[in-house]
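INFO  loader      accepted 1 record
INFO  loader      residues=352
INFO  predictor   begin
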Amino acid sequence: MQLGSIELDMPFVQAALSGYSDLPMRRIARRFGAPYTLNEVVLDKIVVTKGRKQREILSIADDDHPVGGQLMGADPEVFGPAAEMMAEASYDVIDINFGCPVRKVLGRCRGGFHLSQPEIALDIVRRVVDAVASDRPVTVKMRRGMDDSPESEANFFRILDGAFDMGVSAVTVHGRTVTQRYVGPSRWEFLAKVKEHVRDHVVLGSGDLFSAEACVRMIRETGVDGVTVARGCIGNPWIFQECRALWNGQPLPDPPSVAEQGAAISKHFRYSIEHYGEQLAGRMMRKFGIKYSEHHPHAREVRDAFVAVSSPDQFDDVMGRWYDASVDWPPVVRRSGHGDLVAAGATSCEAG
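INFO  predictor   done
INFO  writer      dumping tokens
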């Protein structure tokens, strides 16, 4: 799959996940085969405002490529300078968020709200393309409209066509509306309609991707060029190696053993310590541990243990108790992959 000049060796990528897709999560996803990841969505105003948060956003690790930086905001005039700064900081792709359905985001005229105002949405796209598209791919994330009205669908296609006319390299489409948020199924048939409409332009699909089988099936059923995996990869980096196997015509790998899970979680924790320092890493890893616990044969007990973690020592205690490779653990059963597996507390603007 191509994103402008960037060639990916498989069409399954990690989405931007607010509160989750930090550097440690992106690094562990790459270890298990993700060819491209996106940083969590950031406000354009923060990118252009000097301070600690700006320094964090604009700090890209050498082993974190290719990586996309996703921008969200209300003022078109801020998008261009913010995109330029992210490009200068070595983000490989600049992604524009027109999809976030969170109420406080909509109330501030950001994210999915722009689907109700095509003129402003396209002004934002134009400013970002003008700022960086000469040497960076620009992509756009959208939902299939504000709601199910004909006017909303017309606005969607006006923004979609206008964005490709301006030179964006790809558009990701989530099969739910903004007002639908995460309730009800994602309409994959709409993704097929979009791909048929744009033909040779690159379209990535999103929505209800909680297993490798679903990721491959979305491409085959809708014709999209690739998919972005969101909630389905939190605490489940193995989904990328599973996608790779199925895409290459190989059998689905066995689910990770408890020992393999423990090795991955420990590596994720070490990445987190490197990035945040020991004290903060313990708290940051709690939410990931809760999601990792879903793969353990004693999922409920392990989840409860991770909930209580607030320090590195407590995290080590959980690992020693529940991921001891010398213990003869019951067989691991692959989790169902149904859309009701939602990350606790997640407010992702890219949730799948």
